[in-house]
Amino acid sequence: xxxxxxxxxxxxxxxxxxxxxxxxxxxxxxxxxxxxxxxxxxxxxxxxxxxxxxxxxxxxxxxxxxxxxxxxxxxxxxxxxxxxxxxxxxxxxxxxxxxxxxxxxxxxxxxxxxxxxxxxxxxxxxxxxxxxxxxxxxxxxxxxxxxxxxxxxxxxxxxxxxxxxxxxxxxxxxxxxxxxx
Length: 181
What we know:
By secondary structure, the chain is an alpha+beta fold. It contains seven helices and eight strands; from the N terminus they run αββααβαββαβαββα.
């Protein structure tokens, strides 16, 4: 009985006894995932300047060993995102990669899908699936010298979410921080 109570299949009340809680494994996992916040698992963001060329961005992609990079302005505001696929498409063309600015290739704001630190991990996973992307910038609104925008403070990836689901399934504590670059 104690195992079933600890597993949340049964609840117990004084003078009532044990009774079925109505919770299944799936609903328990769902509840746990919705409790986990993006801020608890976000990793260090991989960012490059909007002044970079496509060539410099490709080099940065390999240096950071990531699948996408967030493009930021001089003040640190999110300007766009570029993925491996975006860079591969432009690299297969005939242009000089040293001369093509990354701003020509990137997906620009406001078309960048992002999450906030207070969003749930479930919401982040939902955004990745709906938009068929590999990572999300974790952002917070800022006002920089009268210019409103989003500051990149982290990233959430498919790997981050997969690792969290694995740890939940194993009954392990979720490791905070999601890793670093």
